User: What shape does this take?
Amino acid sequence: MNSLNRIEISRAALIHNFERCRQLSGNGAVMAMVKADAYGHGMIDCARIFIERGAVALGVAEALEGAELRAAGVTVPILVLAGVVPQTLPVILDARLTPVVVDPSILAELSHLAGLRQLTVGLHLKLDAGMGRQGVLPADFLALVRAVQSFPNLQIEGVMAHLPLADDRKSASSDQVLATFAATTAQLAQEVPGKCCLHLANSGGLFYVAGAQFDMVRPGISLYGYYPDGQEGRAAAAPPLLQPVMRFLTQVIQVRQVPAGTGLGYNHLFTTSRPSIIAVLPVGYEDGYLRCLSNKAQVLIGGRRAPVVGRISMNLTMVDVTDSGAVQVGDEAVLLGKQGDQEITADDLAEWMDTISYEVLCLFGKLNQRVLAA
Ligand SMILES: *Cc1c(COP(=O)(O)O)cnc(C)c1O
Assistant: This one.
């Protein structure tokens, strides 16, 4: 038995977006960011599709996610970007994940456990080239490199940094971070024998920062069809445009005719000003359709936009369909995505919720049943 609410994931859109990212990457080396359950789109399904299309690596936040990918048969390198701590090292080693090392304190334990398993561990280093969140500052970078090299069974395979303002096309920050990253990693040529993979670009870096591609790129949000700077980004983007991947669908479970002056739902947050037709949907904040969307959001019914009226409750939402033509129980209602020639995007929802598309996608995707569609 399925829920009346469902998330639909478009395989074709995932492929389209991946190809677009690959095109822009220059050398075609894309590490697909599938952390947070692929931003709510389903980590394993998405990972398989990206690998099929040529992703050279995957990025996750936690070791646990990497282990799940391995258990599903994924063989490409998987970088663990957060939570490389003593407690997660056994999983990282046993699942052959690639730890991103943020300072020297973990190296002795990593080397010790690798030694017990007779492994040489390839790792990436995190440089704080301006993000100000994780990693070592440029001044401490060479010391970190040498610390790794003091352990025979640890090997530097890559160096990364992250861009703090890549979604801001006008900011000078990205060029500065890029220059710091390039200058700091230039020292590696003499220090690290063999190929070292340099990577900096998230979606913003890939789409907006010239020269940020280096050896590999790390798009996340763009794989799922959104620009890091929301609808502004979409409006300014060169075709082919990214295609939103996720739809959030439900259906009408009651249609009510109410007179003017009827208070609707909790707190009577909305009172009808005319005789109205109200459609009731079996969706609410439990499903990520948050209360802050009350009296604000719109949904698509019968190919038209209709406003959410009254307080969104745990499992119920009301929509004013007075101007929507004939609406019946069982009609499809689209909370996110296209219906006919209308579309509600995660950027629209983000605006109503005072957040960014990333959060909307994670929220809806994680709290609802998901189906992978063509
Ligand atoms: C999440 C993440 C990305 C992807 O960012 P998007 O803005 O979604 O493209 C890239 N790099 C790192 C380190 C990340 O944590």
User: Anything to note?
Assistant: The radius of gyration is 24 Å. The longest helix spans residues 11-24. Residues 33, 35, 81, 162, 202-204, 218-222, 228 surround pyridoxal-5'-phosphate (CB under 6 Å).
